[in-house]
Write a structure and sequence with these properties.
The complex is a heterodimer of chains A (343) and B (375). With 343 residues, chain A is of the alpha/beta class. Chain A is built from twelve helices and 14 strands. In chain A, the strands form three sheets. Chain A has a seven-stranded mixed sheet, sandwiched between helices. In chain A, strands 9-11-10-13-14 form a five-stranded mixed sheet, sandwiched between helices. A two-stranded antiparallel sheet of chain A has the order 1-8. The N and C termini of chain A lie far apart (45 Å). Chain B has one domain: 3-Layer(aba) Sandwich (Rossmann fold), CATH 3.40.50. In chain B, the strands form two sheets. In chain B, strands 1-7-8-4-3-2 form a six-stranded parallel sheet, sandwiched between helices. A two-stranded antiparallel ribbon of chain B has the order 5-6. The chains are: A alpha/beta (343), B alpha/beta (375). Bound molecules: thiamine diphosphate and magnesium ion. Thiamine diphosphate sits at the interface of chains B and A.
């Protein structure tokens, strides 16, 4: 894996004079740059070529790279995920787009049972340098089957890396790292974040995995978040500031590897920790962070780690229900206040 | 030793009433009495009008993503006409016409696409499964329903619908294999409309027909003109008979075309030629059925006018009924998660109930903008 150009802990929004682009454009730029520099990289998935992708992430890529490298597939998630594994073993570096991570469940065997174990099972002979990417999470009012936050389920599996960027700058730098990584990388593009704009410099940069970013500095309580949840945490922190509570927000960027050091350092400073995680609470990144903090910061804590998750039910289809189901700024505020005994 | 051919395969295509008005008297004899055909035509017209209304509702923000049925009405309707009331109709998302024929209320379907789970809680007994948007899943459920019906010694059969694209999912192949190997009373109706969103049929299947995919699993296969209500009825009737009397599956490729976009989230002009659409407009199932009825002296423009007035009233009333249903309470999200709600979930439910929607608005959220997307 290549190392980063040192922007790891910057505010993550580039320089003041930088141009602003959407999250989806940042992901595309990363893919295009990597495809220009490395002929082994290709993009494969449903509607990625002719249609520019279900979420328009691959817009224009068919024109630039042709149908040989930007490949529309049949509706066969298990098929193209499994094919990508074979192609990767033959030395290619496929990027596999799932229209939605919800549809990756059809491909559970190749992506969970094959890709992350190929190196292990071949005694180190065959790696799987594949990026699996797609839209993740609820909030688009797509009903329970199309609204998975798969980080809860999939981050449990050894052998793969998981990236969940919160902003365009990170998305680009992390995608480039993902493509150059020699292991399978699950790249999750949070629902509702794709159209979000942010500054992204023109020049090349990479962001290493396992380096959290301080999205907001504060002294009273550490909020650990990733993906879209970072924005909810920022909203909550702005509200809490009015009440004299100063939160530090850690944007984890990658769930696996998890920057445990950053979490521990922050919590040792603040003495309080709240985790915001869109997936269900049982056996989740949120519970992992809580276990970590309880172990490493036991003597620094004034209260147990508070966690904000989606409700423990399938994602509701109805709009108001879906909004209530998801973590939101109000629930984060409550968790922080409760954690600080200021409820 | 000379090399011998050991297998020759054939696929029959059935067309009874074509787009030019040619009608096969022999195949059509006794298939659909004129009085029934009038009702079928009215059903198609009503479904077509609903498509128009739903499209406008979506564009004005009163409906989530909606998949129009336009052009494909005859496929599911032909099947529904043949099936018994207690046969299972296992659909994906473009079978409104058949569902309405079986008595599923229009407001249920509307409610569903307006973004409400309760749209799928159709009044029972309807023997229709929830609308299945994940591609492919429902075919295996149909095989399972038929399996259980056989196991219980009942006469119910299962008729399942899916697109050409869905035959690329493993689920299709596994369902077809099980249905054939276990001798299950299933009718597989593939609505081949040549497109899976922007992906043309040749990317899904290199064989000249989709029907032959069924042959590979050892079941009778047939291709029909899916815009011909007679042909659809003919094929499903034979298949249902086979299922009921011999407990054998059948694969029917219904060749049709969606005249509209994939869903309201799509713009089909971006990937297909208007010339192609224009050809299929001439093959519209409604057009040829109407002309046939006129020839039979069962229909005329004044009847058309009366019908359209009635349909407008009925569809608009259904929209009103659907829109009048108050948003579901948050307790709904919990109450159907388990047969018996565990104590910890009951606690979560009760604590969420105490937060009114108004309190959600106290903290403005930049990232929480709601809105139905969809594919
Ligand atoms: C497992 C899964 N993969 C992808 C999708 C996205 N998707 C929705 S409809 C569709 C095309 C379906 O085409 P086809 O089966 O031909 O049905 P049609 O809509 O043409 O009737 C796709 C790819 C999905 N809903 N589920
Ligand atoms: Mg199709």
């Amino acid at each position: 894996m290549s190392t980063a150009a040192g922007q790891g802990t910057a505010a993550g929004q580039g320089t003041a004079a930088g141009r602003e682009i959407e999250f989806r454009d940042a992901v595309r730029e990363a893919m295009c740059e990597e495809m220009r520099r490395d002929k082994r990289v290709m993009l494969i998935g449903e509607e990625v070529a002719q249609y520019n992708g279900a979420y328009k992430v691959s817009k224009g890529m068919l024109e630039e790279f042709g149908a040989r490298r930007v490949i529309d597939t049949p509706i066969s998630e298990s098929g193209f995920a499994g094919m990508a594994i074979g192609a990767a073993m033959m030395g290619l570096r496929p990027i596999v787009e799932f229209m939605s991570w919800s549809f990756s469940l059809v491909a559970a065997d190749p992506i969970l049972n094959n890709a992350p174990k190929m190196l292990y099972m071949s005694g180190g002979q065959f790696g799987c340098p594949i990026v699996f990417r797609g839209n993740d999470g609820a909030g688009g009012q797509l009903g329970s089957t199309h609204s998975w936050s798969i980080e809860g389920l999939f981050s449990n599996v050894p052998g793969m890396k998981m990236v969940i960027p919160s902003n365009p700058y990170d998305a680009k730098g992390l995608m480039k790292t993902a493509i150059r990584d020699d292991d399978p990388v699950f790249f999750l593009e949070s629902e509702r974040v794709l159209s979000m704009k942010g500054e992204v410099p023109e020049g090349e940069y990479l962001i290493p995995f396992g380096q959290a970013r301080i999205a907001r500095a504060g002294s009273d309580c550490t909020i650990v978040a990733f993906g879209r949840m970072v924005h909810l945490a920022l909203d909550a922190a702005a509200e809490l500031e009015k009440q004299g509570i100063f939160c530090e927000i850690l944007d984890m960027r990658t769930i696996r590897p998890l920057d445990a050091g950053a979490i521990v350092r922050s919590v040792k400073r603040t003495g309080a920790c709240v985790v915001v995680d869109q997936s269900w609470s049982f056996g989740s990144p949120g519970s992992e962070v809580a276990a970590l903090v309880h172990r490493e910061c036991f003597d620094d804590l004034d209260n147990y780690v508070h966690r904000v998750h989606s409700a423990d039910v399938p994602a509701p289809y109805a709009q108001q229900l879906e909004q209530q189901y998801l973590p939101n700024a109000r629930r984060i505020c409550e968790a922080v206040r409760s954690c600080l005994y200021r409820a | 030793m000379p090399i011998k051919s050991i297998l020759k395969l054939e696929i029959e295509r059935v067309s009874i009433l074509d787009e030019h008005g040619n009608y096969d008297e022999k195949l059509g004899a006794g298939l659909i009495p004129d009085a029934d055909l009038v009702k079928l035509y009215e059903a198609m017209s009503s479904c077509r009008y609903l498509d128009e209304v739903a499209f406008k509702l979506q564009r004005s923000g009163r409906m989530g993503t909606y998949p129009q049925n336009m052009g494909q009405e005859a496929t599911s309707l032909g099947a529904a006409y043949v099936l018994n009331k207690d046969d299972w109709m296992v659909t994906c998302y473009r079978e409104n016409c058949g569902l309405f024929w079986r008595g599923v209320p229009m407001e249920s379907i509307l409610l569903h696409w307006m973004g409400d789970e309760r749209g799928n809680a159709m009044p029972r007994p309807h023997f229709a499964t929830p609308i299945a948007v994940p591609i492919g899943t429902q075919m295996l459920h149909a095989a399972g329903l038929a399996w259980a019906s056989k196991y219980r010694g009942e006469k119910q059969i299962a008729c399942t619908f899916f697109g050409d694209g869905a035959t690329s999912e493993g689920d299709f192949h596994e369902a077809a294999n099980f249905a054939a190997n276990l001798d299950l009373p299933v009718v597989f109706c593939c609505q081949n409309n040549f497109w899976a969103i922007s992906v043309p049929g040749k990317i899904q299947c290199s064989a000249p027909t989709v029907a032959q995919r069924g042959i590979a699993y050892g079941m009778p296969c047939i291709q029909v003109d899916g815009n011909d209500i007679f042909a659809c009825v003919y094929a499903v009737k034979a298949a249902a008979h086979r299922a009921r009397t011999e407990s054998r599956p059948t694969f029917i490729e219904m060749v049709t075309y969606r005249l509209g976009d994939h869903t309201t989230a799509d713009d089909a002009r971006r990937y297909r030629d208007q010339a192609e659409v224009d050809v299929w407009k001439l093959r519209d199932p409604l057009l040829r059925t109407r002309k046939f009825l006129e020839r039979q002296k069962c229909w005329d423009s004044s009847k058309e006018e009366v019908m359209m007035k009635r349909i407008e009233i009925e569809v608009n009333a259904a929209v009103t009924r659907a829109e009048e249903i108050a948003a579901p309470p948050i307790t709904d999200a919990f109450n159907y998660t388990f047969a018996e709600l565990p104590a910890d979930l009951a606690q979560q439910r009760d604590s969420m109930q105490t937060h009114s929607l108004a309190s959600e608005a106290t903290v403005t959220s930049t990232a929480a903008s709601p809105g139905a997307g969809g594919h």
